[in-house]
Structure formats: structure tokens, C-alpha cells
Design goal:
Layout (H helix, E strand, L loop, with lengths): L14 H6 L5 E5 H7 L5 H17 L12 H19 L8 E8 L4 E13 L8 E14 L8 H16 L5 E7 L3 H9 L3 E14 L5 E14 L10 E4 L1
Parallel strand pairs: 4-5
Antiparallel strand pairs: 1-2, 1-8, 2-3, 3-4, 5-7, 6-7
């Protein structure tokens, strides 16, 4: 395993909210870390819990006019599809060599935030571009923070953990990529602040949107592909305490 030993640290703060309302007794863990330290670990159970969390944190009140409260049918359909996606991306056979999944959890084992990283094909100027920019490069995805814990520096900590993991586990990789909707200005500003730059915008993209009438509808959107160079970065990731 490429996981480094546990290392305590005090996280930097980001903004006034994180300064006055810090998250205490929380830690960053990944699935490999959990499987090695928790005798009751079940990969299927952990991914299912993470998928359910992601549905609540990401799909509820989704940027772009999504409904503030999912119907039972919407929640069930989204949870099923999210579990399938997470198993495809972060299944046991892919961990370490192809992907990794991170969570911030408190001392009640509640998930407060999550993010994933996987080696994927990066296209040059859009989803349907025939030109390949990189055949296999780190693509960060599934970043979400609980609505009760936003603006407290958790997203920044996850991005830093992902970047450190890339440097430690895939040292041959020189960049990290991500995809984000252009209308999610808060996320775009966060990534820009952390050194990511937009390399293309796909204005022909579509995204799923849970609507107030109880449907799941595909709607037009603009997807940005952002990139950050990780040259010279060496990070240490382990079971890190955020606030003590």
C-alpha cells in the first residue's frame, strides 16, 4: 500500500466561516486505509454509504435549479445509479492502481465530505473530441460537501489530499484534471484559488437535473475541464486529523 503512516496536523483555515465555525474531531480517510484498519470493513457497504451521502450532498438542490427536496422515487433512482457508478470507478480491483476514494468523517463515522480520483482518458477540447490529450491521467471527481459543513475548508482539504495521493502513489503523473459545470461559480472559484486553470469548455454538454415535478431530466450545461500542474509536489497522506 502507498498509504503513509498516520500524521496529526492542524488544517489551515479558508475564509471567515472556517475560522469561526471549524469542524472538530474529523479526519480524512480513504478506502484502502479503512480496509487495512477496520476489522469490520465491507467495501460494498462503504461504497453504498458514500453513494447515499453523495446523492444528498450533490444532487439535492443541485446548481442550476434542482429541487430542494428529492422525492422518494428520485432519491431511490439516484442512489441506485450512484452506487453503480461508484462501484465502476472505485471497485476493489481498481483501487491504488486505477483509482481511490476519500472521505472526511467525524467521530460518529458520519461522512461530511467526499472526493474521488481515477486514471482516465483526457480529451483535448470536449467530451466528444476525437483528439486525446492524455491517455491515462488523474481525473478528480465526485467532490461533495454536506450542506451543514460547507464553507469550512473541507473541500480544500480533500483537494490537497487527492493531490498528495497522486504525488505519492502515481509519481509519474505531472498533472491533475477535473470537470465542473461553469455555472457552479463557487466550485470554479475554489479550484482557481487552488491553482487550477481552464483548458477547455464544452458548451454542448448535458447534465442530469432532479426537478420539482419529481422527474430526472437532462438539461443543457457548459462543462469546464480544469488542470493543475503537480510538478515538484510531494505530499504526505495518511489518516489525517483535521481539527482536534
Amino acid at each position: 500500500s502507498a498509504i503513509c503512516p498516520s500524521q496529526a496536523f492542524v488544517a489551515p483555515t479558508f475564509g471567515l466561516t472556517s475560522l469561526f465555525f471549524p469542524v472538530r474531531n474529523a479526519e480524512i480517510v480513504n478506502l484502502v486505509d479503512l480496509s487495512e484498519t477496520d476489522p469490520n470493513y465491507s467495501h460494498k457497504t462503504e461504497l453504498s454509504k458514500a453513494a447515499n451521502f453523495f446523492v444528498d450532498a450533490f444532487w439535492t438542490a443541485k446548481i442550476g435549479g434542482g429541487t430542494a427536496e428529492l422525492t422518494d422515487s428520485q432519491e431511490r433512482d439516484l442512489q441506485n445509479s450512484q452506487r453503480t457508478e461508484f462501484n465502476k470507478r472505485y471497485g476493489k480491483s481498481r483501487l491504488i492502481n486505477k483509482s481511490q476514494f476519500f472521505m472526511i468523517r467525524n467521530d460518529q463515522d458520519e461522512i461530511l465530505a467526499c472526493a474521488g480520483i481515477e486514471l482516465d482518458c483526457i480529451r483535448a477540447d470536449g467530451f466528444l473530441s476525437p483528439t486525446i490529450l492524455e491517455k491515462s491521467a488523474p481525473l478528480m471527481s465526485n467532490l461533495a460537501v454536506s450542506r451543514d459543513h460547507r464553507r469550512r475548508g473541507l473541500a480544500e482539504q480533500l483537494v490537497q489530499a487527492v493531490e498528495s495521493y497522486i504525488a505519492e502513489t502515481w509519481p509519474e503523473q505531472e498533472s491533475c484534471y477535473l470537470l465542473v459545470e461553469a455555472r457552479n461559480r463557487g466550485a470554479v472559484r475554489l479550484y482557481e484559488k487552488m491553482g487550477y486553470e481552464t483548458i477547455w469548455a464544452d458548451d454542448q454538454a448535458e447534465t442530469l437535473l432532479p426537478t420539482k415535478n419529481g422527474k430526472l431530466t437532462m438539461v443543457p450545461t457548459v462543462i469546464l475541464c480544469m488542470k493543475k500542474s503537480l510538478r515538484g509536489r510531494r505530499g504526505v497522506f495518511g489518516r489525517l486529523r483535521l481539527f482536534q
